[in-house]
Amino acid sequence: MKTLMSIGAHVGDAELSTGCVLAHQSLKGDKIITVALTAGERGNPKHLSVADYRKQKVKEAQEFAKMLKGEAIVLDYPDGELPDNDEVRVQVANLIRQYRPHYLFTHWEKSMHKDHALTHKIVVEAAFWAALDMGDKITGTPHWAPVYFSENWEDREGFEPYLFVNCTDGYELWKEAISQHWFIMNSPSFRYFDYYTHLTVVRGCLGKFKHAQCFNVKNYQKFTKMDGF
Q: What is the pTM of this model?
């Protein structure tokens, strides 16, 4: 059994950009962990306050993870105010050591959204810290996990599909799980459900699968192989 951890800036980022693969692997018995550094509560609908929408978003993250027999973690940072400091890096590094994932997934390095680009930086550095002997700065035993970068419509600048990962078996479960998120089904600004579900078909065509999600890597990672999928 493997453990997969997907870390997004907001609730919904990991679920959309990596969720089909997470669902596919959950059906194979793998352990699924989603982490959101903020809830993404400032995209609140008119009928909900920011505070109430945060509560709803946390519940949606938990419901998604439950459907995949996994766990959801949402940190306490406010949407749009994710800090660029050691504290958040230590929190993420502690989670990596605690759950000891075989694979980490997060945002690509360039994005139209400040929180997305910063999450990329935080996760890459936290993964490095988690693997080092940092003394008392980070709890637990050092653990290394490679980081792969998910395809997100807001992170398109410079993103090049490199790995096409089959998610066919998890597609129906994933569709049902993401439909629990209000913004995915009801956003007036972007057709999230249509975009991401159809994208798995497009990426599946290129990867020779019925459904797939794709990931980019740093150049040095192109000398290694992503096993287990």
A: 0.95
